[in-house]
Design brief:
Blueprint (H helix, E strand, L loop, with lengths): L4 E5 L5 H11 L3 E5 L1 H4 L2 H8 L7 E5 L1 H12 L5 E5 L2 H11 L5 E6 L7 E4 L2 E3 L1 H12 L3 E4 L8 E2 H6 L5
Parallel strand pairs: 1-4, 1-5, 2-3, 2-4, 5-8
Antiparallel strand pairs: 6-7, 8-9
Helix pairs in contact: 4-5, 5-6
């Protein structure tokens, strides 16, 4: 089974991912793609603490993750791939050369310089351009915080205002 969800979420592993997405998709593993976390054993241990024991967690930098996508696609159980920012996903999509077909924008939270698009998505102009670049690779980009919510297409996301 291929990776069931490729998600951008600045919190990486947290309850909404593990429970909110994990249970309905019956996820059995999580792949975290973050160059800094992949190099930090103590950060990896912190993230593992938020995952039930029956769920495996793997940590990779972007290049290693791209090289491992085919291996994850061969697994018999579904998984989720998480990145913490749009730039990382943009790099991964480019390196994966067509292996990623859809990306979920699940949580890009408020910080200075970002404009609210949805209650859980705030973007800079550069991040908006990054999402367009991901889409230009033939990837379906939608925003959706939880499985029961309606997926918001990229064009709609980029013209939305927070709270709309």
């Amino acid at each position: 089974m291929p990776i069931a969800l490729y998600r951008i979420d600045d919190r990486l592993i947290h309850g909404q991912v593990v429970v909110g997405w994990g249970q309905p998709l019956e996820l059995r593993f999580i792949v975290v793609v973050d160059d800094d976390v992949a190099a930090s054993e103590w950060e990896q241990e912190l993230y593992r603490m938020g995952v039930p024991p029956e769920m495996q967690v793997f940590f990779h930098g972007v290049d290693e993750a791209a090289a491992q996508l085919a291996t994850y696609a061969q697994r018999s159980e579904p998984g989720v791939l998480l990145v913490g920012d749009i730039g990382t996903m943009e790099r991964l999509v480019a390196a994966a050369r067509g292996a990623i077909r859809a990306v979920n924008v699940g949580g890009v939270h408020h910080s200075p310089g970002r404009t609210g698009r949805l209650r859980y998505v705030f973007l800079t102009a550069a991040e908006e351009q990054g999402l367009r670049a991901i889409e230009a690779h033939g990837v379906d980009v939608t925003a959706q915080d939880v499985p029961s919510a309606r997926p918001v297409p990229l064009a709609e996301l980029l013209t939305s205002t927070a709270g709309a």
